[in-house]
Amino acid sequence: xxxxxxxxxxxxxxxxxxxxxxxxxxxxxxxxxxxxxxxxxxxxxxxxxxxxxxxxxxxxxxxxxxxxxxxxxxxxxxxxxxxxxxxxxxxxxxxxxxxxxxxxxxxxxxxxxxxxxxxxxxxxxxxxxxxxxxxxxxxxxxxxxxxxxxxxxxxxxxxxxxxxxxxxxxxxxxxxxxxxxxxxx
Length: 185
Hints:
Blueprint: H1 5-25, H2 31-50, H3 63-81, H4 88-107, H5 123-143, H6 164-184
Helix pairs in contact: 1-2, 1-6, 2-4, 2-6, 3-4, 5-6
């Protein structure tokens, strides 16, 4: 992505650390959490690679179609998984957003990556920004501690990879990263 180099490196670090944490979450004892963590790790590392400042590294022209193919396959997998659980729809939107950004980056010359030619925000970019901004606000609100209920703590503490608040924080950070990447397009 293009924009201030220091912000780009912070985005790379945020996404890479989130991807690494999601890899660790794949060790969960719960099958559904392992699957979700795998998709989220792919998203985190893909976002980190895409966010590397253009002043440092400009990917070769073949990299953008590879990004589009990988995230297109991830979108198809999320679409298939969404038949049974609707939370996979968010993975579908995230993967589709990555395909959209890869195609947009492939279609524009390197000098034009900083903006869209002064014509304003394209409709799809705006829609994705609205979606991810709403997702970030909702995810942040879900992280606000709730009063302890009588059933909390029954059965002992959860394994760190199975803690829902850590998974939510992971998803929140990737949502913030997606908003930053869409704004930098």
